[in-house]
Amino acid sequence: MKKKLFCLGLCILMAAAFTGCDDDLFKLQGGIDESSAVTTDENGYQSYKQKISSKEKPEITNIYITAICEENIENAVSVRTEQNVLISDTVGLIGEPMEIRFIDNELQDTTLTFTYDPDELRGIPEKNITPMYIDYDENIFRLIYDFKLNEDENKISFPITQSGTYLLLDIYQYGTAMGMEVSQYAYKRDKTAYPSDWERKNDTGDIIKLADKKWTVENAPTFHVSTPEQLASVVYYVNAINEQPVEIYLESDLDLSKYEWKPMGWSTTYGANLIFHGQNHTINGLNINCHNKQNVGFTGYAWNIVMDNVNFTNANITGGQYVGGFSGQCYGTKKFTNVSLSGTIYGDDGKTGGFIGSGANGIYTDCKLDINVNGKPYYFFSSSEQFNTENIDETAFTLSVNENNRVQRTENDKYDRIDWTIYDGDTHLMSRGAENETEIPDSLWEYLHAEKGKTYTVYMRGYKQNPDGTSGYTRVSNIIQYIY
C-alpha cells in the first residue's frame, strides 16, 4: 500500500512539473551542473544535454537524452545524481550513478548517452565500459548489453524505456565480484598510478604524504612496520587498494603525535580486514580528527579485527557517528588480547565506545581502558557492551531445559524482537529470531554442527528503545549452560 501511495504521489508531482510548477523533482542536484541545452535535428529528435561536474567521480562529463517529444523535452525529463549510498558503492562503478525520470507517453524512441573523459578512467579499458539499469524499489539490477560504444567521441549510448537509475561499470571488476565469466575483459592496472576513490572523496590528512606506495605493493598483504611512514603505507593499502586481508607485525614503538592520522577502512567496499600483532610495542599520540564524519577510529569501517599485545597511549579521536578507539563500526570478528588504550574519544551519538563504536559484542582478554568519552570517564569496550550492561532485563524470560533436553523459554509480551543467543566458550555462534518459538528446535543445533555432550552457553536477547534515543539488543533472560 505504501508503494502504491508513493507511486501515486510521484505521478502527481510529475504532472505538476509538466504544467509549469517549479517542483523539487526537476531541480538539479549533486554533481549536476546548472548549465543545460536542448537541440533538435532534421528528423525531429530533440536532445537534452546536461553537464555533469563531480570532483569525487569526474569520469562522466555529460548526459544526453534524445527522443521524439511533441513539447519541449527539457520540461519532460529529470536528471540528478543518485543519492543511494549502496548504489554509490557498487563495485566497478565509473563516475556518478544517474537517476533519470520521464513519463513514458511524453517521449518516443528514447536514447540515453553518457560521455566520459578517458583520462579519468584510471587505467580501465574503454571496451570494458558497460551500462546498468537499477530500480531498487522493484529490486531490479540489470546489465545492459544493447549499447553502442564510440571510443573516438568517448560516448556510450543505449535505448531506454523506463525511469530509474543508470550507471556505467567496469564489467571486469563488477563481473569478477559477482562470479561472472569475464576473463575476456581482464587487464592489469597499477592502482598506485591514479588517485583512488578514497583520495577523491576524503580528507587524507598526512597519510598520502607519508605513504610509500612502492613499499606498500611490494610487502602486501603482510606488513612488518617499524616507522610511521610504513604504518601510513598500510592505511593507504587498505583505503586505496584493499585486495587482500591485512596482517601487521609492529616491530618498534611508534610516535604519531605530530601527524594528522586518518582511519584505515572507510567504506563497506574498502573496509579493514585486519590482524594486528603489537609484539608488546606502543603507539603513542594517535590523532584522528574527522568531525561530523562516520566510522572513525584506528580503523573506520572494519569487517574483522584481531589485535594482540599492543598499547595505544595518548590517543585523541574525534568523529560524528560510529566512533571508537580501534573501530568506528565492525560487525565481524572482534578479538583483542592484551591490548590497552588511553586518551580521549568524542562522538555525536550513542554508538561511541572504547575499543569499538558500533557492532555486536567482541572478545576482550586482559585488555585495559583509561579513556574519557565526550569528557567523562568511560569503562566499556564497546557501545554494545555499555547498552547491554545498563539495560539488562534478565527476569523478562526464564530459560530452562525440559524433559526432552531442549532449551525452552517462558512467555513475555514486553519485547517483540527477541532472539536465541548461543556461544561456544567465547565464540559467538548465532543470534537468531525467537519470536515464534518457545524452545530451540533440533534443526538449529544441527545447523550449528553442535557436538553431542558438549556444553554451550545460551541466553535470550531483546531489542530495547530508550527515551533518550539509544537503542539496541540486550540480554533479557538468565544464562544457562546447556549440554547438547
Report on the structure:
The structure is a single chain. The chain is α/β, with parallel strands linked by helices and 484 residues long. 15% of the residues lie in helices and 40% in strands. The chain has three domains: 28-185, Sandwich (Chondroitinase Ac, Chain A, domain 3), CATH 2.60.220; 197-390, no CATH class; 392-483, Immunoglobulin-like (Sandwich), CATH 2.60.40. The strands form five sheets. Strands 12, 13, 14, 15, 16, 17, 18, 19, 20, 21, 22 and 23 form a twelve-stranded mixed β-sheet that branches. A six-stranded antiparallel β-sheet has the order 1-2-3-6-10-9, with no helix packed on it. A five-stranded antiparallel β-sheet has the order 4-5-11-7-8. Helix 6 crosses helix 7. The two termini are 46 Å apart. The model is unreliable at 1-30 (pLDDT under 50).
Ordered list of secondary-structure elements with their pairings:
Layout: H1 2-18, E1 32-40, E2 45-52, E3 60-68, E4 77-81, H2 85-88, E5 93-102, E6 108-116, E7 129-135, E8 140-143, E9 148-150, E10 155-159, E11 164-170, H3 171-177, H4 197-201, H5 207-210, H6 213-219, E12 222-225, H7 228-241, E13 246-250, E14 254-255, E15 272-284, E16 287-289, E17 299-318, E18 327-330, E19 334-346, E20 356-358, E21 363-365, E22 368-373, E23 376-378, H8 383-391, E24 399-401, E25 407-409, E26 418-424, E27 427-433, H9 442-447, E28 455-465, E29 471-475, E30 480-483
Helix pairs in contact: 6-7
